[in-house]
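Students often ask why we bother encoding 3D structure as a string. The short answer is that it lets us treat folding as translation between two languages. Here is a chain of 727 residues written in the first language.
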Amino acid sequence: MAPDISTSSSSSASTTLSERDSKILLAEYGVPIAAERFADSATAAGDAADELGYPVVAKLNGDAIAHKTERGLVKLRLGDRAAVEAAAAELFAAARADDGPVDVLVAPMVSGNRELIAGLVRDPQFGPTVMLGVGGILAEAVADVVFRPASLDAITAGEMIDDLATQKLLGSFRGEGVVDRAHIVELLVGLGRLASERPDVASVDINPLIVQPDGAVVAVDGLVELAEPARSASGVRSRPTAEQFRALFNPRGVLVTGASTHPGKFGFVSLHNLLAGGYQGKVFGTNLKGEEVLGVQTVADIADLPDGEIDLVFVCTPAAANPELLRACAAKGIRAAFLTSAGYGEAGEEGRVAEAELVALADELGVLLAGPNGQGVVSTPVDLCAQIVAPYPPAGRIGVASQSGNFVSSFMNLARSSGVGISRAVSAGNAAAVTVADYLDWYADDDATAVGLAYVEGIVDGRGLMDRLATSAARKPLVLVKGGATEGGAQAAASHTGALAANDKIFDGECRAAGITRAATVTEAFEAAATFATQPLPAGPNTIVLTTAGGWGVVTADAITRDPDLRLMDLPADLQASIDEKLPPRWSRNNPVDCAGGETRDTIPEVMELIATHPDVDALIYLGIGIQSNQARMMRDGRFYPDHGLERIVGYHERQDERFAEAAVELSERTGKPILVATELAVADPDNPGPATVRRSGRLCYPSGGAAVTALGHLLRYSMHRGARSR
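And here it is in the second language, the structure alphabet:
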């Protein structure tokens, strides 16, 4: 029947409706059902076939019969009454005692070369979820299925259809008409409504959903599973207050507990990073000996610290000391605590008990509890680097929250190398009291942050998580990368976090429904976030590639063509005529616009402006920056420099690339269109004046045309999502 989607029903005890009763229920919710008759004898089956017209299909039907095909209980292409009666007699004879009361279903033999599958599952993590995919006998082999949370509207249902990989099956196919999208949308919306109105329906399996020659769809088989509705999840913790988040990210003063003179201890490293990052607020420390550490005079007792001058405590003391420490900090007016301490939920049952007790205490004291078992918090608007690891990123507009501290470091390293900065960053650790969703929710209201960026892996309450993330994504772009997307990754995530990884296809559908950008890798996630933080949203899919070499353009054009939403537009005739005036006759005269060596001091900025200002163009990808400076570097490094006129030409080449980079940024800001600059020199030679100028602008210089296309595709899909729901 349905492909394996690794889900379970809401209860272990379930019953399956007969095909007759399943179809009656499904028809009430808009599922198109073929005309059918039910017969209690072979003669009655023949009468039914005469009434319906030949050919017909005959099936044994009963409340206890779920999988007919495996038992040979389906007879196809019966062309006359005799064949029907013989088939019916055979079906009645095949009935078993445990099948209960049975009859024979007789229905027209619906024709069509295309089969889909639709259904409903109640995922243990994400709740009721609607499914659509390629069906029939190929359902499991092809596994082209998409999911969306129920209930869903017509827009979301339409996006499900668009997300199927086998789009050619939906167009004209082997002489048959285009699939009736409106018919499918109505069916999917109906399944979502069924999920809301009938909590006792654990799953629905409609397979096959046959596409008829005229494009209309009809369900020829359907199965409904009933189960006791699952109990509602316990209440979700409320997000910390704005004042508590202010204490964490914009503290007036910071206390490091367990400050140490030993450079290998967390208490030394965290204090060092705090001071080295340039934090301008007051810095305090505790040390059992009251020693001076890095110029900070520590105290042995928190009671000796001033009242009302410290907002954040950075905890580097053992778990056993932390309850009393929190009480002492609260007495001094501290409203946020970041705990690096291990030995809590990740350490077994005893640790989980200690963690729960600490959370309860923090709630009682009114203290935001970040961590435990985290690496730290960064807030560039106030030069805060309170963490036990490097690096410290440049200031920017990306807000980072991660279940993995290592990936916080990864994102900050990428920020340092790319020049696209970060506003806030936090390692959630065990997320005992404050979750990744809490941080992202606050970022969505944070004036310093333009886009949220997160890494998640183990998911305990998928429904609660996605509801929270959806509210964040409705206010600002949100980029996620998820660990545990494969079976191997899911096992690793479970062992690392103690939480189960959720079904990946369902998670993907949840993200699509919420307008969340999901990236496959950490690098892709950062590049997407950097694009959201620095580029305007495109108004449409029409993209032009401007290149100084043909091969780069061809590969990038291929990437655009493979993207499901971007369009490698035909070069408008008036734009072609305008470019003719700027480039030599040998230029490509097509999209990609290959300058074919005709680039001079002015042609790149001028052609770029012609393209960017054309009303039909939505986005531009520029390839080849830095090439002249690459030659200049070789001249500068060679033994003939600075003689032979090399000093002058080197300076000229380097100024050219700077001019091209500046033109791309200025044009993008002026036109409100994304202009993405890409070259491998962004990685291979980051000091090259071309990519270096892009980096100084605060924008990302993409390492390849393909990376630029991927980022632009994410940008477009978010723009489309917002646009569709704003109408």
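Translate back mentally: The first strand starts at residue 14 and ends at 16. Keep this in mind for the problem set.
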